[in-house]
Amino acid sequence: MAGGSGSLLFEPATSGLHGTVVVPADKSISHRAAMIAAISGRTVRIKNFLQAADTLSTLHALRVCGVESRQEAGPESRQEAGEQTHGITVVEGVGLRGFHRPKGMLDVGNSGTTMRLLPGILCGQDDHTFKLDGDVSLRLRPMDRIVNPLRSMGVDIRAGEGRFAPLVVKAGEVHGIDYEMPVASAQVKSALLFAGLYADSPVRVTEPSVCRDHTERMLAAAGADIEKKGLTTVINPARDLELGDLIIPGDISSAAFFMVAACVIPGSEILLPDVGVNPTRTGLIDILKEMGADISIENEHEAAGEPVAEVRVRSSALRGVTVGSGISGRVIDELPLLALAGAFAEGDTNVGGAAELKVKESDRIAGLVENMRLVGVDIEATDDGFIVHGGAGIEGGIARFRSFGDHRMAMLGAIAGLASRSGVVVQGFESVSVSYPLFGVDLRLLSGGLQ
Ligand code: S3P
Ligand 1 centroid vs 186 CA: distance in angstroms? Predict the structure, then answer.
């Protein structure tokens, strides 16, 4: 099974994928729950908070600022297929302006969401200076997208060369802004909405196309004066917030790997319960259905202001599709999976309007094209996406599929192996710990390798 350190061989599935997997909690919603709980005037109990490196980075950063948190019931434990007990993470809210002078630097590891959202809260704290830094990958990612608008709001925030971590935020006055975002980024939108809580006049943010709205939903639930009209969100300054106890739904971005695997591996039928199906996140389901996928959304209900459902996926024949920029904000983290689906589809799959993929945890266009070519897929990069000439599936072989330290690339490589004819070795598989530490276990469970 194992290759060298950090390398794992994923062998071709001998039959279809079957069974039920409860995917881990939503990463985006977990980050927001921790941050909004931190600035609430009460203790908040978060059920099913994601226990993975990125979200633990948020709890750690908050702790450095004096916000205590603890795990009350044990973390997720799996007794049998599909069975999971949720842990409870308790965050001791300190109120809107209750952060302490930081005990040191806020090390946010690999977490872009922590680094981009937190300054929106830090800028409103009483007279403290906060320094945020991250790992090598995070230091390469653009931070000017939050630095520039926050500076326009009067925030004293500095970045290396004006655009990279480390960031230094000095709390002080915050002014309102009417801001049109150049890219559809939920992280930028969220940072500005958080800063709007502390501003002296309203903050208006307009997104060029729909991107995830978890911040808006949770701030509204916590009593913020926030209103959404089309692509524009307006938030008024807040006096206090009170987030109720909540449960985090499963992460559709984690479920996405199994969804695509079940689509392309013949004879598959899987069920993914408790998956968040917020319409700002379901772009992949829409695209796969357009490709001919057999996906049904069952038992839809609401939990803590977010739509949740069971997602059932059966294998089916796929055809190529063209994906444009209008939908990319609803599917940005799942777009690389379309290279895999596209390899099995009849005709070309053309993904455009996705230049943002170049500035994720790795350059997900360059890395994807390099890796997919190594495993025998006919794929080419374009300026803002990629084109797959499909129909031949995935060969696999001895070449190593590199994660580039990127959790989603590692999981993609594993799925590619299962769907391949000769297996795929994934190098740097341990990166999955960023969002889905038990990904390998759940994958074996669905492929019958674990009873
Ligand atoms: C996220 C938003 C997206 C996404 C990231 C998480 C969030 O990034 O890619 O994984 O939690 O707000 P952008 O907002 O930069 O598009």
Answer: 6
